[in-house]
Specification:
By secondary structure, the protein is of the alpha+beta class. The chain has two domains: 2-178 and 303-368, Rossmann fold (3-Layer(aba) Sandwich), CATH 3.40.50; 190-289, no CATH class. The protein has ten helices and 20 strands. The model is unreliable at 399-407 (pLDDT under 50).
């Protein structure tokens, strides 16, 4: 499954935003409190909506923390559209529902269209409105098979269980759509870690590195390779579990043994002794967290992996190198980086940069920059190397008007 685009409307303060995945890394740039996190959380919400049971889906659709509360979008239906490719098809799936307030029905609407890679026209293969679904079961059949659904049940889920349609692989990809966000090191050097069962746990950094090695040696070697490329002063990273035997001596424990103490160390070229991870800077540890999370997200086939406000950790002088290294990994996971700093615009293709704007009604939208807008932006920024993203956001609204007048 290769993502082409995602569209989100009416989630918290998000009005209507489409992100096109035209490169390995997408940048979302806006000042604080513009809705960058809300946009990412909307993607996770959509992922959970697809993969949940009917009962938990009902909870998601009635959760007051997600419902739009601005005057202009208060209780407007949530709407999401995912465009993607599989080995056989290009697909567009749309899902919308009414937020459940005062015991209202969600009135779910679904639509899935497919076309072959050489075809120009999409074919409707399933649709659902309220509690009635229609679907095509064969390539030559029409979308007229009728099926009844409960209020919070998805048609794609029900058809996937029956496995009675020719596009069952597409349905499986949809239901396995997964998004993960890395917020960095949390207190006491703990990080988020994806387990082999695809659950997301929080654990100490030392334990996470050890489990990475135990679960997948190739991933661990890749982790070391990338870190050493980013930081040439690193010679090696070692991790193992030790126990105290009956003679009160340390020995390496069995890999499957649950007892023991995990020891992870980093050897620097100019240090006499290896460092404990707790001795490293917070920035160092957060980069460890980024890379661990990204490698795992790729291994466990997550579709989107996002890093929030990367400039809080990585110095501008290292940011370009970090992005270049990430690109060179050639992972299948789509990366999104959010930032309030305009520096990132210099390191990512302009068509993959989305700038946040707050509309007059208080809602947020995100749009990418055209080549003409980038040129005008460069000209305006020529005399100000420290242009703040707040200025960029204000300029963008005027630039769009100027460009449209000249076209």
């Amino acid at each position: 499954m290769r993502l082409k685009s995602i569209k989100i409307s009416n989630y918290k303060n998000i009005k209507n935003t489409t992100i096109n995945f035209d490169g390995p890394i997408i940048a979302i740039v806006a000042p604080n409190n513009y809705g960058k996190s809300n946009l990412l959380h909307a993607m996770i919400f959509f992922s959970n909506l697809l993969s949940s049971t009917s009962s938990y889906r009902f909870y998601l659709m009635s959760n007051k923390n997600n419902i739009p509360l601005f005057k202009s979008n208060y209780c407007k239906p949530f709407d999401a559209e995912l465009s993607f490719e599989t080995d056989k098809y290009e697909a567009v799936y749309n899902c919308s529902f009414k937020w459940i307030i005062n015991k209202d029905k969600p009135s779910i609407v679904e639509e899935l269209k497919l076309r072959g890679h050489k075809s120009k026209k999409y074919t409707l293969v399933l649709s659902r409105k309220d509690n009635t679904g229609k679907y095509a079961s064969t390539k030559l059949g029409r979308c007229n098979n009728i099926i009844k659904l409960n209020d919070s049940e998805l048609l794609i889920s029900k058809l996937n269980i029956s496995n009675s349609v020719y596009y069952s692989d597409v349905l499986k990809d949809l239901l396995n759509f997964k998004v993960s966000i890395d917020n960095g090191v949390v207190n006491d050097s703990q990080i988020t870690f994806i387990s082999p069962k695809n659950t997301i746990d929080v654990m100490p950094l030392e334990e996470a590195i050890y489990k990475l090695k135990r679960n997948n040696q190739n991933d661990f070697e890749l982790f070391k390779f990338v870190l050493c490329k980013l930081f040439p002063e690193i010679e090696n990273i070692a991790t193992q579990k030790v126990i105290i035997n009956e003679d009160d001596k340390l020995e390496i424990s069995d890999e499957e043994c649950d007892n023991g103490t995990i020891i992870s160390r980093v050897q620097l070229k100019y240090s006499k002794h290896p460092f404990k991870l707790s001795q490293l800077s917070e920035g160092f540890k957060r980069i460890f967290s980024f890379l661990l999370h990204l490698i795992q997200a790729n291994t466990y086939k997550y579709n989107i992996f996002a890093i929030e406000e990367i400039e809080n950790t990585i110095h501008p002088s290292l940011l370009k190198e970090f992005i270049d290294v990430i690109k060179s990994l050639n992972t299948s996971v789509q990366m999104i980086i959010t930032s309030y700093s305009p520096n990132i615009i210099s390191y990512i293709n302009s068509k993959n940069v989305y700038i946040g704007s707050i509309m007059e009604d208080g809602l947020a939208t995100f749009s990418n920059l055209s080549k003409k807008e980038i040129t005008k932006l460069d000209n305006k920024a020529y005399d100000n190397k420290h242009l703040f993203v707040e200025v960029i956001s204000k300029l963008l609204a005027n630039l769009k008007k100027e460009v449209s007048k000249n076209e």
